[in-house]
Amino acid sequence: MGLKSMVIDAWSWLNYKPIYSDPTLGMPNRRAFPQAHASWVPATDERRLAAYKLLAAYDNNQAAELAAVRDGDSARERREFGDPSMFVDTLVSHVLGREQHITVPGAEQGSDGDSTAAAAERVQELLREWAEEELLPMRMLQCERKAVGLGDGVYLVYWDQGKNRVRMKTYDPGFYFPVLPEDGDGADFPDRIHIAWELPEDVKRGLKPRLRRITYELDWIRPLSASGLDQGGRPVRAPVMTVPDDGEQPVPVIGAGDQVDDTGAISRQYPWNEEPSFRTCYLTDATWELGDIKGPVDVDTLPLDAATFATSSDGEVLDRLDLYIDFIPVIHVPNTVPPAEEHWGQSSLAKALQVFDELQGTDTDSSRASATTGSPLIALSGKAVGQSKRERAVGPGLIFEIGEGGRMDTLNTAPQLAELRNHRADLADQAANVVRLPAVSLGTMDPSKVPSGYALELSLGPLDSLISGMRLARAHKDRLLLRFVQRLFLAGQHPDWAGVTPLPAQLVRGPYTPTDKAAVLEQVATAYKAGLVSLETGVRCLTEAGWPIEDADKEIEQIQSRAFEQARFLADALGNVDEVAAFLGREAPDEEPVPVVQLPPVPGDDDPEALAQAGRQGGGGNS
Fold first, then answer.
1. Is the pLDDT of residue 86 over 60?
2. 312 three-state secondary structure
3. Mind listing the pLDDT tens digit for each residue in 302-334?
4. What single-letter DSSP state applies at residue 36?
5. How far is residue 100's CA from residue 505's CA, in Å, rounded to a whole number?
6. Which of 26-40, 204-218, 379-393 comes out lowest in average pLDDT?
7. pTM for the whole thing?
8. Where are the alpha helices (DSSP H) in 445-600?
């Protein structure tokens, strides 16, 4: 096999395994990965699906079972002690952080007299309520477990009419089949996505093996009363015209709220767009019996005439159902930033997989060596008195009688066992170095051996760069998720979202490394006292450091409600009682009108007696 047949792609790091890349066939083993070679799976996805199954086997301590397909039952004797699973769990906890918060820029500024800040605060409140009802942290954990271990994760958001809110699902990436254009950028959003999987045979219900495919497709808005095909069977943009019985001009049959321009194209004004859109998303949910799938077809070209279409809760047939949205509500989450013009991420176990194989071999050898160390082999020389098997068996309190000149020797394998354990420790360190997980992040370092906090911070450098890259790959997907949620609430016409304008929202992931809370508190207090940072920034820094602040806005309100000294300065500066009361979150007291001062009358010059009395009241005065 020459260099011309060498495959370098997103999964070529698995080529070293014969079960994955056969030296003669150059494809995954059909017996080990039958799902990847199903008739409906595109040829370009075979290696991807096989890689997912192989990585899942490592994560579940079942790599030996796959190896037994090619190497025989002896491969099942390998010991797998869960090192890949530990690495995945550690990375998942780091990339998620201790907590997750939804923030909308501008919401922390308060809504006093500022309509923009009030709108941001309202959107933030609604999104946080949705995240709590939909168990967003748990959904994220499910997706991140797939993304870190397999390289990719998939979210689906949809409107649930029964629950009257946006729902969220997590799919295995092996069910995800995007239709990527050959001359397009893999980082672009595909216009057609399939979520497909096989359903096993159900003998009790009389169901044969089936294939279910859910398709989301962006296409031109079509009329409601016809298939939208021209005489040649090609889809058309123009609406189908119908002629009324009264002989008037033909009119297009379109949906409510849609418009037809001069060219015959149908447009629709979505509440989240400023300009009308000519596209919409269609949903198709169909099922095929595997026996009916024949010929050179794949998941994108399955014959619709042999399909059985599902129905929604409202009784609508899910055959190109118009969802009245102009986006596909499926979000692909890559574990790493994909290379240029690529679509798929890479598993965090990819580069260290050969080290894990060496760890399995060392664990197996250590297990065998420990057996001979605990029950050593004994050799007897000379003529022994007893010859029964019981006398030759090794056990506590057993006495061997050996004749003249006899001796007993034992095989000591303890040094070899100790060397194997040292070798295993070296391999574990090598795997951690390749994955960029320092010992302190794995919890295998003795804290008393850390020379200083600065040395600890330096040791976390590789982990910082690793998590930064992983969070960079997810940053846009997190914003996209919250954007889709807002649009679906508007499309579902939820009463709480009436009149709400979608705003950019962020999903902030908490810290993942140990932090010195006391040091952060001192820095924030010093900077805030010197006027270098605002109260909002200070509270955000304390939240990221792990302080138990559930809601930054409420925390700021509580702090200001007790800031009487600052309120006094504000009163001296503005002289406005209402402004001071708003700062404290209180109501200004009702001020009573100041009584008018009543001055005594001034006596005239023509009243000598009054002048004399006024002089006596003034202290007698000097004439």
1. yes
2. coil
3. 999 999 999 988 888 999 999 999 999 999 999
4. G
5. 13
6. 379-393
7. 0.78
8. 453-459, 461-491, 517-529, 535-544, 552-561, 564-574, 577-584
Who contacts 354 (Cβ-Cβ below 8 Å, separation ≥6)? 16
Indicate if the pLDDT at residue 157 is higher than 50: yes
Residue that has been written with the tokens 């499910």 in this structure: 142
Q: How many CB atoms lie within 10 A of CB 256?
A: 7
Only one residue has tokens 């911070």, namely 457
**How many whole angstroms separate alpha carbon 365 and alpha carbon 416?**
10
Q: In terms of Cα–Cα distance, which of 129, 158, 141, 472 is closest to 331?
A: 158
CA–CA distance, 482 with 35 (Å, rounded to integer): 34
Report CA dihedral (12, 16, 18, 21) to the nearest 10 degrees.
Answer: 20
CB neighbourhood size of 444 (10 A): 14
Read off the pLDDT of each residue in 157-174 and give the average, rounded to a whole number: 94
Distance CA 63, CA 355 (A): 14
Query: 463-505: per-residue pLDDT in tens?
Result: 888 999 999 999 999 999 999 999 999 999 999 999 899 999 9
- Answer yes or no: are the C-beta atoms of 90 and 82 closer than 8 Å: no
Residue 522 CB-density burial (10 A; 0-12 exposed, 13-18 middle, 19+ buried) = exposed
Q: What are 37's two structure tokens?
A: 């070679």
Q: Kindly tell me the burial class for residue 118, based on how many C-beta atoms sit within 10 Å of its own C-beta (0-12, 13-18, 19 or more).
A: middle
Please report where in the chains the tokens 């950019």 appear, as a residue.
504
What does the pLDDT read at residue 237? 39
β-bridge mates for residue 268, sequence order: 258, 277
Helices (H) and strands (E) in the chain, counts: 17, 17
A 10 A CB-CB count for 451 gives 7
Q: Are strands 152-160 and 279-289 parallel, antiparallel or unpaired?
A: unpaired
